[in-house]
Write a structure and sequence with these properties.
2 copies of one chain form a homodimer.
Chain A lengths: L2 H25 L6 H4 L1 H5 L10 H5 L4 H8 L2 H43 L31 H35 L5 H4 E5 L9 H12 L4 E8 L2 H22 L8 E2 L9 E2 L1 H26 L2 E9 L2 H9 L10 E4 L15 H33 L1 H7 L4 H4 L2 H9 L1 H11 L1 H11 L5 H29 L13 H11 L1 H21 L1 H13 L14 H18 L6 H22 L12 H25 L3 H30 L3 H12 L3 H12 L28
Helix pairs in contact in A: 1-16, 1-21, 5-24, 6-7, 6-23, 6-24, 7-25, 7-26, 10-11, 13-17, 13-18, 13-19, 17-21, 18-19, 19-20, 19-23, 20-25, 21-23, 21-24, 23-24, 23-25, 25-26
């Protein structure tokens, strides 16, 4: 790829970004778009009444940037929780890393690369038609002493990244502890989930749990709630909700618009009836059915061998959590309970074996998905190598000779296609994760996040790198000894692709995140085609499973290409600067947290960064070998070992903090609440906190006045 | 190797075994050898007064076999503990495995191999001069349908081994629990070791521990004992013991034998003194010194940031053990306390970082040892390939043409040399393990056992297999894809070497175990050269670190060669039968347990067997590929996956039982002791149970009457 192709790509994307930004700053001021650009504010009732004049409303303005900039970390913490803070810390961390990296890379490494003449003689004329490779390490002469500069910069950069990693891990650990210390009593701190309750003849699971915990935890045991199989009931309630929505919709129409309908098959046969009465009748029947099912369930329902067990103190719950309860380790398996509204009810997979097998199935499914995904990746690779495309599709020859078309095709199209295909991955991975038997939305989100991250690294980085040079060389990893060498050949060759990938995929994803294209269109359709549905909307939650892997993938690109092709760094810095502002803005206006993990996303960030460092060092080992500087190659190995040791240390030092709270903190919190009068109230509520929402009474048909309330699930917290 | 060479080897070893057995059955009846062949009985005072006549004493008799055979598992459990039972269960398990394997191997696979004609035409004449390879799978024709018999037998054998593994794991788990339920209150159930106690200004570690545990575990906390740095003191006490021994020796001599000595430099200068008085004086000085040091230590000694913390109940200790105590996970690190007499005091490595670094150092040291050990292995390999030896040392040509010499050299010498070198490994590995910061002899023993096992597998199995065919092919393992194929070529080629290895190393080690050559010689020297020392002897403890790896290594050989060269199986069966009888005899007469891990050696056995199965299956995959039966090769892969899943299941189902006791069992035991009057006594003793023996008062000089007692370390349990 030549310099001018890169410039074309940058130009297109810069144009797109500016367009989106301008459109955003206009559209967000239209009151009709409040549901799209400020759903959080609308839900909180803080949607500012637009005081500006009509002309002001039509002019772009950068006020939102200032507001986003001024937002402090304490505000984010108090309004959107610790997870949002972690999200922002990823940006801050990356900005710090790539500022240091950028200074070294652009001021030192880039000139060193450029004055090499491995690829072409030094010649400052005709820059636009030169290959981007002259800015990469490939241009440094073999055996050149200048490679020691690269060697030193790798050491310095690794040192800086490790220091920053340590600092951030420490910072977020302390935030997590502070968050816990300042929290009010919360049901999930007092509750554990017990699975694989052994069946005993003539006794319900509830009785078993009751007698087990009163025997072994008499001082702290409070209550239990056995989980029921409510799949059928959930279906019925869903139907009732749908009917209720349709009914609302019908009622909102003018009565003269209402047509009579037939009550028979498909509304084609039977006698004519008023549809409102008809649906009302149906809804009442359905609700009756639901109530019957509910009472059936609570009397003799199909119990699942799992129960939420609540304790009188946090420490009591922690004791039951951490000590193996029964002599048989696969019975009475305990687990931290999630927040009540975070419980994932639909697929409450229970038995030990079931969960184990579904785990295995998911692993196989992930591998299959990865293999299937190679198809678009290979297609994209043929686009970057135009010669191949011409041999496949000879009739395109004429078009491809036009400079602009070929530049668009090599510079823009490949990453766009990849981007579109990548959009389908997070939802699929989410389905996989929810099949694994996780019991909360947050666990599913964390697991999805990990899956998407590794999928992205494998399918975007490795598949591109290895298929770009030697097609389908997946079995490189079956010969670990040769990995550094193979990567050293393949990775620098893809530098220009990834530079454009940052520009197209990264910048575009940010501006579309800001612009919210799909919600905007969706909102438009809803408002203009189906009137009454408009006032009932969901405030979106932060899509960690898409965002974190993307941000981390760019970090991986930045770290691996830091010394190979430092030209990537300025584009990454732009990405992180934009991202920093845009996500602050979105946290302020758009997203509401659906759960709080207390910063459990950070270990993913840490691990991924360490992986990037190791990858970078492995490539360095290979590159120095290829460049005939075996001394530097061997001297990089200690760095790799040191990095692994650093990781090991951090795992020991910080990871346990994210797994569970310590006795010290739990007891301190318990003592704090000991003389609190509100604790009795809290414990009363705790008893029913983990009731399955499908078992809560429903009432749509009669309760016509306040028709919004029953749609919200009403847990006591 | 030809059949007659094998027969030579079998002959020699059988002769040796019979010789050792005969000598044993004679020597054990000599009263003077009681310390060698029945030290356990002597120590227990049960040494039977030999009633048999002089002639009977000189005739070999098989009475000991009958007694060993009649010993029941309950007796072993009550006299030598659960670990000895586990040792015997390894033999029982192996006997079962190889009985099944032997039936399939000898009756089905061996004939199938023999009628193949890949290596030579079927010809029943001249059997002694045929290569052993005609009994191995190498002789089956390529692409032969008969290989499906091997395929089926692999499936059946894996099934049988997995069933037996499951059965044994379950059996030993239940034994472990039963052992715990039937145990009396023991200090290590009530105590934990706390390490990395944070230093706080102006406070001793003892105060820190006291205030921490009284604050966070007020109901259950009993007492603490901070560990002191007693290296200097231990040295002094050792010197005092030595002096005391010398003094005893001098006193036991006739007084007219005693010469006067000079009290100056090296006993050459100064005035003449009576040596008894001289040493007495010296000993008194030394004891005074020790007492001074002890009182110094207890007042202002150098404290180590580690303490034994005792609790009033087992459950209380378990709670403190399992829950992370402090917000900083590398402070207040808790660990199960070992039995008081099992604590390993000399190297009480303490800080988190120190232990971590010494772990790393030990890993590096193990790798170095492995590399160094390749030298003798390569030498041994040149012996099995006589041609190579002839080219290296041409002057041997004349000798090597003598049939018997060459048979001895190929059949016997290699394994003997290996055996001698292997003897040095367990002590070295024990030193490594004790450097890793383990705090008890039992942990060191378990860790040594693992190290020796993997060392044996690597250096005997892999180094022989891979250097025998392609010298120094260690980097086979850096190309995982090719492992099955490479192993399939190399492993069958070494079949005859390992058959002789079983006969020489296995049978010889058993008979020398029975005969106790070295203790016998040692005892002889002691008795005849240094009179008085004889009555003071140590009862040996079971050398798990040597025995378990050896038994497991033979199991690995049996499992991997089960379908390759079933001829190995009868020799193994003989080994396990002999071993079964001999170890029962030794447990009855010789060994006394020094510690009790409660069966923690079994997981090592389980893991090693699973590894053997996986190895066997990997070789099968390669062999079927080489033998042009790719279908069978692919169909073996599911078996490998199933075996791994089985292992995973067992890890989940049984391993936690060996890590810690459950809440259920702990609370049951606590309740049992609740109304026990002796508990008060027990708790009183518990407070001082973990006193460093170096801090106990010593008294050698005055206490002349009962001079045996102070030599035994006197902990209250």
């Amino acid at each position: 790829m030549i310099v001018s192709a890169l410039l074309t790509s940058v130009g297109i994307n810069l144009g797109l970004c500016i367009l989106f930004f301008t459109l955003y700053s206009i559209l967000r001021k239209q009151p009709s778009n409040a549901n799209v650009y400020g759903p959080r504010l609308v839900a909180e009732g803080k949607s500012q009444q637009n005081s500006c004049s009509n002309i002001e409303r039509l002019l772009p303005s950068p006020g939102w940037v200032r507001r986003a900039w001024q937002l402090s970390e304490e505000e984010i913490l108090s309004t959107t929780g610790l997870d949002a803070v972690v999200l922002m810390r990823i940006f801050i961390f990356s900005l710090r890393v790539f500022s240091c990296g950028g200074i070294v890379g652009i001021l030192i490494l880039l000139p060193v690369n450029y004055v090499g003449n491995q690829l072409s003689d030094i010649d400052f004329s005709d820059l636009p038609n030169k290959s981007l490779d002259i800015f990469s390490i490939s241009n440094v002469n073999n055996g050149s002493k200048r490679l020691w500069i690269h060697f030193c910069s790798i050491y310095v950069f690794t040192g800086v990244v490790c220091y920053l990693l340590y600092y951030e891990y420490k910072y977020i650990s302390s935030k997590r502890l502070a968050y816990f210390y300042s929290s009010k009593p919360q049901p999930h701190h007092f509750t554990i989930l017990v699975r694989s309750i052994p069946a005993s003849a003539g006794r319900s699971f509830g009785d078993s749990v009751e007698s087990f915990f009163t025997e072994y935890h008499p001082a702290t045991y409070l209550s239990n709630l056995v989980v029921h199989r409510t799949k059928k009931l959930q279906g019925l309630i869903k139907d009732a909700k749908m009917l209720y929505k349709r009914l609302l919709h019908l009622r909102s129409k003018d009565s003269n618009q209402q047509k009579l309908m037939r009550d028979g098959f498909l509304g084609l046969f039977g006698r004519k009836v008023n549809p409102i009465d008809h649906y009302e009748k149906k809804l009442e029947d359905l609700e009756e059915h639901v109530r019957m099912e509910q009472s059936n369930l609570s009397v003799a329902g199909e119990e699942v061998p799992a129960a939420f067990v609540s304790f009188k103190s946090r420490y009591g719950a922690a004791i039951a959590l951490h000590i193996q309860q029964s002599d048989n380790p696969i019975e009475w398996v305990t687990e931290q309970a999630p927040e009540p509204h975070d419980v994932y009810w639909p697929f409450f997979s229970t038995s030990f074996m079931q969960r184990w097998i579904s785990n295995l199935v998911v692993i196989v499914a992930c591998i299959l998905l990865t293999i299937l995904f190679l198809v678009p990746v290979v297609f994209v690779q043929t686009l970057t190598n135009l010669d191949q495309l011409e041999t496949f599709l000879p009739f395109l020859k004429g078009i491809l000779t036009i400079t602009f078309v070929s530049q668009v095709i090599t510079g823009y199209l490949p990453s766009l296609i990849l981007l579109l295909f990548l959009q389908t991955v997070p939802p699929i991975m989410k389905i996989f994760s929810s099949m694994q038997g996780y019991i909360s939305h947050s666990q599913i989100e964390i697991s999805t996040c990990k899956k998407v991250l590794w999928f992205t690294i494998w399918n975007i980085f490795f598949a591109n790198v290895l298929s770009g040079s030697v097609l389908y060389q997946i079995n490189v990893f079956l010969e670990p000894k040769n990995i550094p060498e193979k990567l050293a050949v393949a990775v620098p060759a893809q530098a220009s692709f990834f530079i454009t990938y940052v520009v197209t995929s990264g910048w575009t994803s940010l501006s579309s995140e800001l612009f919210r294209m799909i919600p905007l269109i969706w909102d438009f359709i809803k408002r203009h085609c189906s009137g009454s549905y408009a006032d009932e909307f969901d405030v979106p939650s932060i899509p960690y499973r898409c965002e974190i892997p993307r941000i981390l993938f760019f970090e991986l690109l930045g770290i691996t290409y830091f010394f190979l092709a430092p030209l990537i760094l300025p584009f990454l810095l732009v990405y992180y600067c934009l991202g920093y502002i845009i996500y602050r803005n979105q946290l302020l206006n758009v997203y509401t947290p659906k759960f709080e993990t207390g910063g459990k996303f950070w270990p993913i960030v840490h691990n991924s960064t360490i992986f990037s460092l190791i990858l970078m060092q492995a490539i360095a080992i290979g590159i120095f070998g290829l460049k005939k500087l075996p001394m530097a190659s061997s001297l990089t190995i200690p760095l790799l070992i040191l990095t692994l040791l650093f990781h090991e240390y951090c795992q020991k030092r910080f990871l346990p903090i994210f797994a569970a709270y310590s006795a010290e903190s739990l007891i301190k919190k318990d003592k704090e609440n000991e003389n609190d009068a509100s604790m009795t109230d809290f414990l009363d509520k705790l008893v029913t906190a983990y009731r399955d929402p499908a078992l809560l009474p429903i009432q749509y048909s009669e309760n016509r006045d306040s028709h919004n309330s029953p749609l919200l699930s009403s847990t006591p917290f």
